[in-house]
């Protein structure tokens, strides 16, 4: 066996983007060091309630809730580094088909059960059997305990990418007594620093778990998450003191600072874009999808709606993320309304096409949908914009009951290859039209074989180039900068680069 490369060290803590100003860096605000209140409850405004606390039923944006109560076998820090989680060490076989893990001693579940290899096996078997994590764990062939605290996972093919997958929801370990409980979606039982106290519509509360294995590092007594569907309301809640912090969009940064709030922001592996259902006749033709792509003025949208805080892009990953395709960095050549009209005519639609776009309830996606509506109209593409409630939007995307949606898309979690599976592969969770392109499956296998990002980059970039040339079923508009605002005296919140949250380090001044 060879030791898996662990990209972590104590120095990472100092380099992390923490809430010390706009984008990190600088001095920690007065009153934060040594003067925080360990009995304080952190109040955080969120867009909506969790879909489910059962990892098999969770949605892409649920980690903000799941990361509070659960831990995974491998931990990914908010800045994207891998380090020990419930597993303190691991090693791959030379061909990356067998992964051995050693589990952490002295870990207790919220129901009093103790972590051991049998519990880890039970969770992995349950998560790979069905539900939202089954696709991510599809190469797992066998899971077995090789000792009381030792775990072995055998894969059907080289699967170095699974290091990232096991750092996400698919690596969560649920209490063995709760894993088969039909009420797990509302009564989670994990090993996290906090346990669920109450779950109500619009409000979720957590309290510190006294038997947490690393309790001395937890600097707050609890968390209260309050749901507001739109960003203006969430920002007003921070300004008024109703909550301690919330995510905002880049266009609200000036308002937040003008009200004396601390703003933290940084790159994130998400993008704003359109998901097209390629099973619909009007979108099945690749020339139509290319026409939509060329009809969008991404720079104008980024400047007018996001104040430059959402980088124009025609690909899923922004510069700075290893799957980014350098040759596609400049979006200027891709905005061409006349070319869009020509492509529509070639596809047999000289008079244009019409279809519906649905979006979630918050203001960002309403504004983005309307901006796209206006731009597409210039190219002869007439769309009707229709809002959906938060849960309706999640269900529409999962069921494929839509023509087109405008939404935030998570491309990097748990691993960029999973985005390829979900959106570009037949049977993918978010590929209702069954989009496929020759050669993608082979490139995907090559990309997933290694755990080394440098080895994987060429294959992954080739996939994105192929999809782009074929008329993408997902059309990126701009790569999101994660932005949040916090009231004075709240520190320690790190930018979740890949959607991983750590609430244990938050400090609230006395």
Dominant shape: globular
Total domain units = 2
CATH architecture designation of the largest domain: Roll
How far apart lie the N and C ends? 50 Å
Secondary-structure-derived class: alpha+beta
Helix content: 25-40%
Number of helices: 15
Mean pLDDT: 92
User: Low-confidence parts lasting 5 or more residues at pLDDT below 50?
Assistant: 1-33
- Rounded radius of gyration (Å): 23 Å
CATH superfamily of the largest domain: Dipeptide-binding Protein, Domain 3
Name of the CATH class of the largest domain: Alpha Beta
Residue share in β-strands: 15-25%
Largest sheet: 11 strands, mixed
> Could you please say which CATH topology of the largest domain applies here?
Dipeptide-binding Protein, domain 3
Say how many strands there are: 20
Question: Can you offer a commentary on this structure?
Answer:
- The protein is an alpha+beta fold and 510 residues long.
- It folds into 2 domains: 2-9 and 16-192 and 487-508, Dipeptide-binding Protein, Domain 1 (Dipeptide-binding Protein, domain 1), CATH 3.90.76.10; 267-481, Roll (Dipeptide-binding Protein, domain 3), CATH 3.10.105.
- It is 27% helix and 23% strand.
- It contains 15 helices and 20 strands.
- It has helices spanning 11-15, 63-69, 117-129, 162-165, 231-240, 253-258, 281-284, 286-294, 298-306, 337-346, 363-378, 390-399, 416-424, 440-449, 453-469; strands spanning 2-3, 41-46, 74-76, 82-84, 87-92, 98-103, 140-147, 150-155, 194-200, 203-208, 222-227, 245-248, 262-276, 310-312, 353-359, 381-387, 404-410, 474-486, 490-491, 507-508.
- The strands form 4 sheets. Strands 2, 9, 10, 11, 12, 13, 14, 15, 16, 17 and 18 form an 11-stranded mixed sheet that branches.
- 51% of the residues are buried.
């Amino acid at each position: 066996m060879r030791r898996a490369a662990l990209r972590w060290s104590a120095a990472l803590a100092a380099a992390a983007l923490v809430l010390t100003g706009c984008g990190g860096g600088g001095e920690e605000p007065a009153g934060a060091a040594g003067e925080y209140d360990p009995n304080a409850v952190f109040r955080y405004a969120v867009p909506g309630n969790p879909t489910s606390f059962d990892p098999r039923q969770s949605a892409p944006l649920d980690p903000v809730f799941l990361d509070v109560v659960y831990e995974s076998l491998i931990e990914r820090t908010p800045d994207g580094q891998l380090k020990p989680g419930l597993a303190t060490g691991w090693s791959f076989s030379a061909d990356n088909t067998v992964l051995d893990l050693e589990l952490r001693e002295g870990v207790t579940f919220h129901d009093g059960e103790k972590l051991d290899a049998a519990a880890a096996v039970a969770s992995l078997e349950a998560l790979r059997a069905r539900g939202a994590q089954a696709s991510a764990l599809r190469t797992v062939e066998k899971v077995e305990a090789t000792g009381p605290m030792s775990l072995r996972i055998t894969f059907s093919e080289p699967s170095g990418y699974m290091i990232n997958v096991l750092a996400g929801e698919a690596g969560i370990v649920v209490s063995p007594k709760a894993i088969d409980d039909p009420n797990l979606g509302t009564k989670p039982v994990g090993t996290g620093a906090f346990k669920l106290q109450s779950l109500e519509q619009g409000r979720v509360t957590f309290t510190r778990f006294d038997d947490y294995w690393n309790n001395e590092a937890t600097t707050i007594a609890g968390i209260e998450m309050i749901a507001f569907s739109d960003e203006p309301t969430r920002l007003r809640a921070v300004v008024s003191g109703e909550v301690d912090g919330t995510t905002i969009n880049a266009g609200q940064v000036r308002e937040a600072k003008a009200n004396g709030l601390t703003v933290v922001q940084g790159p994130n592996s998400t993008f704003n874009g359109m998901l097209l259902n390629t099973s619909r006749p009007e979108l099945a033709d690749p020339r139509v999808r290319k026409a939509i792509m060329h009809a969008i003025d991404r720079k104008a949208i980024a400047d007018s709606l996001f104040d430059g805080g959402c980088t124009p892009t025609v690909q899923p990953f922004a510069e700075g993320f290893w799957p980014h395709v350098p040759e596609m960095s400049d979006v200027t050549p891709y905005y061409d309304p006349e070319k869009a009209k020509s492509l529509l005519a070639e596809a047999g639609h000289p008079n244009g096409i019409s279809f519906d776009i649905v979006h979630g309830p918050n203001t960002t996606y309403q504004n983005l949908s309307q901006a796209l509506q206006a731009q597409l109209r210039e190219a002869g593409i007439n769309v009707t914009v229709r809002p959906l409630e938060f849960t309706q939007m999640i269900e529409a995307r999962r069921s494929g009951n839509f023509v087109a949606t405008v939404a935030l898309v998570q491309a990097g979690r748990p691993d960029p290859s999973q985005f390829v599976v979900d959106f570009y592969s037949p049977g993918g969770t978010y590929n209702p039209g069954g989009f496929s392109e020759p050669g993608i499956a082979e490139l995907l296998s090559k990309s997933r074989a290694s755990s080394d990002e440098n080895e994987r980059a060429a294959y992954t970039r080739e996939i994105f180039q192929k999809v782009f040339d074929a008329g993408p079923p997902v059309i990126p508009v701009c790569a999101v900068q994660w932005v949040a605002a916090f009231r004075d005296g709240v520190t320690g919140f790190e930018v979740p680069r890949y959607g991983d949250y750590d609430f244990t380090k938050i400090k609230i001044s006395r």
